[in-house]
Amino acid sequence: MAARRSNGFGPLLLFAAACWLVDLWVSSTLPHDLALVIAEDPPQNVELPQHEDAGFFTKVFAAAAQGCTAALVAAVLSAMCEPLVNRLLVKRMTVSEAWEEMTLSLVATYFFTTFPTNMLKFPVFEVINRAMTFTDLSPGVSGLISGWLFCTIMLPVTNYRFRKSMGWEIKTSLLYQAYIPTVARDIMYGWARGMSGDWLQDTIAPVTFTHKAMVFGLTIWVSCIISSPCNEWRGYTLQLPERKLPFNIYFRPINYARSTGIGSCIMGIALMFGMLVTPYAEEVFTHMKEHAAIALSIVAVLVMAIVISFDMLTVIQKEQKLSSYSLNAVSAEFLGEQKEDVHHSMIGDLFLGSAESRRRLAVYCLKDAYLPMRLMDKLLCMYNYVEMARVTGTPINFLLNRGQMIKVQSQLLRKAGQCGFVMPTQKTEAADGKFDGATVLEPRTGFYPQPIATLDFASLYPSIMMAHNLCYCTLLKPEQVRDLQSEEYTKTPNGCYFLKSSRRRGLLPMILEELLAARKRAKKAMAEATDPLTKSVLNGRQLALKISANSVYGFTGATVGVLPCLDISSSVTSFGRTMIDHTKQMVQENFCIEKGYAHDAEVIYGDTDSVMVKFGVDDVAEAMRLGQEAADLVSATFAKPIKLEFEKVYCPYLLMNKKRYAGLYWTNPDKYDKLDAKGIETVRRDNCGLARHLVDMSLRTILIDKSVPKAIELVQKAVSDLLQNKIDLSLLVITKSLGKGAHAEDYSAKQAHVELAERMRKRDPTTAPGSGDRVPYVICAGAKNAKAYERSEDPLFALENNKSIDANYYIEHQLQLPLLRIFGPIMGNDDKAQSLLFNGDHTRKVHAPTQEGGALSKFITKSLRCKGCKAVIKQGMLCEHCAKEKAAEVVVGQMKDFQEKEQEYNRLWTQCQRCQGSLLEPVICSNRDCDIFYRRAKARKDVQLAQEQLSRLKLDW
Rounded to whole angstroms, how far apart are CA atoms 642 and 640? Predict the structure, then answer.
């Protein structure tokens, strides 16, 4: 860095004033906790606020920030002083002569010249200097290299600024002028900074950060003075030939002191202030690194000519509903195979290990690429997207990376061009208009053992738009209606007017016809398919086309969108409401005892495009016949292509609430197709596995086995086992994502998984979860009033440290709500269900964990008990009596228990070895989505405890 100059007592007073300002600013403006460390003398165990253990890039980032801050401070000071200094240095004017040439425009010009060049020079030198500290070179040698590199890189910038400030001609050939004296100056400055800085730090030993900054400023000042002879040599070389002063006049002591003092103080003050930002810069960079996962979790679209970036993760997340979207979980679901899951912390050790460990790492990497390709082939993704692109006229990369609106927009644009319309391109702002949505008939909740027929409107919203010709180009204003005959337009239930198709066919209805035709082809192919997976993929295709057709309605109702039209969307929903009410009325009026039927039909629920009808019959086949008859009767009253279809029968049927129901799905009277459930949260990972298991088993027992008492017994048994700490820990793991960041301060409220991540980071920063990671945890028993986030714990840590689970938390927050939704309607009310399921004799036996850290824990001592009679003993495993009478029996029992636990552990270990593809290598899989992962850890812990029990047996054989 260019060494500057000193000017007697004036510069020293300037430097001292700057140090006082630094101390005052630090103590008054920094955050309180950091100001205490900086402004006061900290205790011995309090570190300075800089991250002493920060990595290379963190330190370099902080050095660049230091240089930028110093550049600004130096530019302000230099603009006021350096034009004067340059005249004293090069022209050797007196102070009064130089002052006469100083003008406000000159100062301003110099600032706008020196600030940009400072922003190059200061950060470059600080970054080079900081990078050199990561080498094994001595401070002096590092400084020499830093000075040489800096001068070689930045000399053109230095000379450009100098000639600009002097008002001299700037030529490219002159930008490397005075290289030898300049490089000598910078090398001397770098060496002096390294050596003097090391010596001053050891000699003064600053304690507070303020003192450290002042010592750094003093280091810069000393280094500038040491390198000043070379700087004077540079000034002598740069004189104009016609005004060149003789050597003896140029190097007079007064001239040297005058030109050196001011510049060295500017450098010292600027870099001292620059050092003050380094703690904050390191904090910012650390925060940026920790939040990189969040930034990366935002989908970045890589645009490449011809090549399509096909991200299977986003495709599967959009099209499939799974409990986990990890590559292992998705591959197990669709391919029936997995990969050995290697934690990132193991990769380095595997690579540096043996040839076999590198082979395992290579297989891991290959499978990371191989499995997504297998998934793409197995799920027929390319076929589906090509067909969707053809139907909608949308590029495949748009289908992958954008939502539903682009499909409708592309189709509308294509169809508008064919029909001679022009489509506007402006984006509209959100409108204030609101309209009533779809009708949801109030459900008559309960358990229905009789068949419940379901009547569904085929593509309700699209068929409404086609039947009534609802489109932008057919929408009429009220004044336009007066010029038309009544048979030429349609008035919707909400008071809007549209031309009928006999006058003009709407663009949207034509688009919908094409989509529904493609869906019809997909459904036909699905009916002909024999492979279950192909059938499910084709089902996904027809559902995607259905969503695209339904999204046409959403396209018109999106107030912030490409082309919103609330008149269309509100008209659609108004027609839908009247049609649901009309269907209910017709079914109940025509299928009743008065019309000759055995029972009065009852519509027990209606939701947007379907109604559930109880005809009162007990036979599934009869319910199907009546359902088809009702569908045909009602369909005849609607305009084509609106059609009410009989689709299925539920028997039995459990109606829990709006949009929450379950039942056995029948399309053939001989055998049910599947157990169908809607709105029941059985796949969320923030519900523990036990809740999902109980919900699923309860529904199967009630609906398939038709045994409510057996389902109640199942739940009671699980609650009892939970209270007695008999439930497998893998079923109690809850998983949540660090979506906003890895630190607790990133969240407005305390959350269990966030607080656990903080504790794990304190235990071992290398394995702690970061931003975007999913954190598995369990809720452990704790103090009486302890919050849940204080009791969250890593499942492995809980296993290894024998921590007990808080059963009451799991009952109240994980099991009650989903199970009461099922059993409440069956038993009449939730209170009765709660009393039967979660209270009673099955809850009386409770495992009472020993409280750790309580007020009485220090007065409690643990004692050994005899394995034979449970008597308190001082040592060993048996009391004297049992050692004589029951020794053999106890030994056999303990050996049998040890062998059973060892066999279980070996079975799980072998299963994991088969999964990883080798029975000879140790298991290193860290896939926490796998149930065996925690079962294997639990089995290992059980074997260790059994071995400890055996070690207490000291019998004389």
Answer: 5
